[in-house]
């Protein structure tokens, strides 16, 4: 588990996901993604919403009142929306005191270090989803995924899974231990890595 300041790791996840967002084109918007409830456009909206929720969590806001998909953003405005949300997030979480503060999320109350780690993992996997959907490279810095795999194991164990119990993660997809780090992370988070070219 990540026990040191997780913000540098989060920054790396944000930067590599930004590269993918920057590569999305108009013709990609309706493509399916490994995160099966989203096409590319709604996945972009979800990513921006997640970033805004991370900032809101740091401010102590009730995340259950916030949307899970940002809407009203034109197809040529996603990178600007991403950058704006990242700047907001970084501004809020520049406060070192937040790392030790207990922060209430919809599913648990956790220390700030864990909140940053959880959402770094979410941004990382959704960056992978987006890259897989548009055919962009997914061979990013393996250290990021290796550091986030234990986070995924902790917050999303093997059971239970499924929409009926309030989370949208499919069952773990078996992936060899020798597979690349992002493939193992994606498999743990229920992605069909065979289909999506791990």
Q: What's the SSE pattern?
A: HHHEEHHH
Number of strands: 2
Uncertain runs are none
CATH class of the domain at 7-139: Mainly Alpha
From the N-terminal CA to the C-terminal CA, the straight-line distance is 24 Å
Share in β-strands: under 5%
Helix fraction? Answer: 40-55%
CATH architecture descriptor of the domain at 7-139: Up-down Bundle
Largest sheet: 2 strands, antiparallel
Radius of gyration, CA atoms, in whole angstroms: 16 Å
Spell out the CATH superfamily of the domain at 7-139: dinb family like domain
CATH topology of the domain at 7-139: Four Helix Bundle (Hemerythrin (Met), subunit A)
Q: Which strands sit side by side, in order, in the main sheet? A: 1-2
Using brief descriptors, characterize the structure shown:
Four Helix Bundle (Hemerythrin (Met), subunit A); mainly alpha; 48% helix; 198 residues; 6 helices
Structure commentary:
The protein has a domain at 7-139: Up-down Bundle (Four Helix Bundle (Hemerythrin (Met), subunit A)). The chain contains six helices and two strands; from the N terminus they run αααββααα. It has helices at residues 7-22, 40-58, 78-93, 112-134, 142-155, 181-188; strands at residues 102-104, 109-111. It has a two-stranded antiparallel ribbon. A hairpin with a 4-residue loop joins strand 1 (102-104) and strand 2. Helix 1 runs parallel beside helix 4, helix 2 packs antiparallel against helix 4 (112-134) and helix 5 runs parallel beside helix 6. It starts with 6 loop residues before the first helix and ends in a 10-residue tail after the last helix.
